Predict the structure.
Amino acid sequence: MHPIAIAPSLLSADFAHMADECADVARGGADFLHVDVMDGRFVPNLTLGAPVVASLKKATTLDLDCHLMVEEPDHLLDDFAKAGARWLSVHLEACRHLHRTVQRIRALGMAPGVALNPHSSFAALEPILPFVDFVLVMSVNPGFGGQAFIEPVLDKVRQIDAWRKRHKSGLFIQIDGGITATTIGAARQAGVDWFVAGSAVFGQPDRAAAIALLRTAAERPGLQST
């Protein structure tokens, strides 16, 4: 496994004070920022687009990890590359020609990732693994913050981890949804490297303490049993 990274999700931040929110979690020890992009079609909600990401890029020193929960993501790839996204994930379920989309993301200078919903199988994911830098495993149904962690997805994490060990791959495993000090330890034990946390960070008054708690709970999962 790679070292742990904590990526606060801006979906849970105060949109009226976004620059201040980014600065707060940067001071608090966040490793990078996770940006949920929703189109109202692939998922019910609408959120941030490429112009906001471009503004965020100017307001923070942290790298931006953009998760496209959208239908037909190919139309947006150039915009997010220009906006300054470092990592870009698209959903397996939304891409008609996933390999082509992944190739385009890399050609645009971003690190490509593939995201998959809780119901999607490892078998559907496996063919694309040699071509991506990371996998984003959704541990809630996408589209809303504050949902409860779906523990059976950890079986899929274990399968991905086993694949990268067999293939001696540098693939990163990311998880998003319901990550708290209670759930992060089991996710780390299953093989997760990058943890997206929304309300567990932005919903707390002391963001530095919240990030430190998550990091400690991930590194010492035996401390969190409830």
The chain has one domain: 5-223. Strands lie at 5-8, 33-38, 64-69, 87-91, 111-116, 134-138, 172-176, 194-197.
